[in-house]
From TrEMBL:
GO molecular function, one term: prenyltransferase activity
Record GO biological process: isoprenoid biosynthetic process
Protein source organism: Flavimobilis marinus
Record keyword Ribonucleoprotein present: no
Keywords: Magnesium, Metal-binding, Transferase
Cofactor names: Mg(2+)
Record family assignment: Belongs to the FPP/GGPP synthase family.
Name of this chain's protein: Geranylgeranyl diphosphate synthase, type I
Length: 367
């Protein structure tokens, strides 16, 4: 099965999307009534971003829940958790695109550029660029508030207070980690290069875990486990599966950020190189490069005006140093470990199979 088909099993996508549509419709009515049409473009932009999501995080949460006894005949709480995760991701993407100065997201202009264009077209007073940046920051904040609301609604009918608390605690930890991870990612792009390549890779792995790996796979799985009434031991056990899978997921994303097809990824080719991302892929290339190759990477990484020929030159260095092959090997190593650990756990057999398939799809993806 491909990723889309996997997320459709047991109507996970249908349930999550229905909640997201209901939330947007309710918010549209409330904001339109209270503030008029001027507020509605915020919801339009959120709708655009949400419509392109794969729902992988929602699916990991659902099958973590099913794996530990969640009843598929009463899936609403798990769908609420999934919808909350999708809105949280939307918040992170709105803010991430501002910090990275990204031009496109899922094949469309990023929110800050879309709002700047709106300002410019209307002939409003002030800076269109600043208006766009401010609007995108507020969009991220609004999506974050909405994610909290959906989580609250999903948990209010869960009778066990310990289950509610454990699920909320994981969500709160996730929010903090992603925020810190964003800062660490930003910091890593500003510190001078040195010869401590092991330290640079260690920092890159910290960024992966905090910013993406844990909230992409580990925390959805553990939130689902907690929602099903899982014990601390069960939560810790599924986390040992989720973290390496999440790392493999992000490492694959880093490869796609350099070598992905723009028609599939929805972002310009080599965008991570223009943004100066010091990923494991880039760090390993620097570590294995010749002095001349290293000087090229140091000079060109993070240049927003890199042309296609310069992107190709950096790609050639990454391939020639063996960095691409070694990261591909690390992805396979992490995924193999995670799935081997998955087989040791006492889980619902159907759910175990689905987590395995979702993990494989996340790691082998092309977008």
């Amino acid at each position: 099965m491909n990723t889309s088909a996997l997320v459709d099993v047991e109507d996970v996508r249908t349930g999550v999307d229905a909640l997201l549509r209901d939330h947007l419709a309710t918010s549209r009515a409330a904001l339109g009534s209270a503030y008029g049409a001027d507020a509605l473009p915020l919801l339009d932009a959120t709708d655009v971003l949400l419509s392109g999501g794969k729902r992988l995080r929602a699916a990991f949460a659902y099958w973590g829940w099913r794996a530990h006894g969640g009843n598929p005949a009463a899936p609403t709480p798990a769908h609420h958790v999934g919808a909350a995760l999708e809105l949280f991701q939307a918040a992170a993407l709105f803010h991430d695109d501002v910090m990275d100065n990204s031009d496109t997201r899922r094949g469309a202009p990023t929110a800050h550029l879309a709002f700047a264009a709106r300002h410019r077209a209307a002939g409003w007073v002030g800076s269109p660029e600043q208006f766009g940046l401010s609007a995108a920051i507020l969009l991220g904040d609004l999506a974050l508030v909405a994610s909290e609301d959906l989580l609250h609604h999903g948990l209010r009918d869960v009778p066990d207070p310990t289950t509610r608390r454990r699920t909320r605690d994981i969500f709160a930890q996730m929010r903090t980690e992603v925020t810190v991870g964003q800062y660490l990612d930003m910091l890593s792009q500003t510190v001078p290069w040195d010869d401590d390549h092991a330290g640079a890779e260690r920092r890159a792995r910290h960024v992966i875990r905090a910013k993406s790996a844990r909230y992409s796979v580990e925390h959805p799985l553990t939130m689902g486990t907690a929602l099903a009434g899982g014990s601390p031991e069960q939560i810790a056990a599924i986390a040992r599966v989720g973290l390496p899978l999440g790392e493999a997921f992000q490492l694959r994303d880093d490869v796609l950020g350099v070598f992905g097809d723009p028609a599939v990824t929805g972002k310009p080719a080599g965008d991570d190189l223009r943004e100066g991302k010091r990923t494991v892929l880039v760090v390993r290339a620097v570590a294995a490069a010749t002095p001349a190759e290293r000087a090229t990477i140091h000079r060109d990484l993070g240049r927003l005006d890199l042309d296609d020929a310069e992107i190709d030159r950096l790609r050639d260095i990454i391939v020639g140093t063996g960095a691409l092959a070694s990261v591909d090997g690390l992805v396979d190593e992490l995924a193999t470990k995670a799935l081997a650990d998955l087989d040791t756990l006492d889980l619902d057999p159907e759910a175990r199979t689905m987590i395995r398939r979702l993990g494989g799809a996340a790691v082998a993806r092309h977008a």
